[in-house]
Amino acid sequence: MERAAGSQRRVNQELASLGHNTPNTSAVERHNGTARRMNPHQVRRSLAFARLPHVRQTVSDLVNGIYNFCRVNRSLRVKLDEPVRRRQYAQRTPAMAIGITDTVWSVLRLLGTVVVPNPCRS
Question: Which range marks the domain in which residue 24 is found?
Answer without folding.
Answer: 8-111
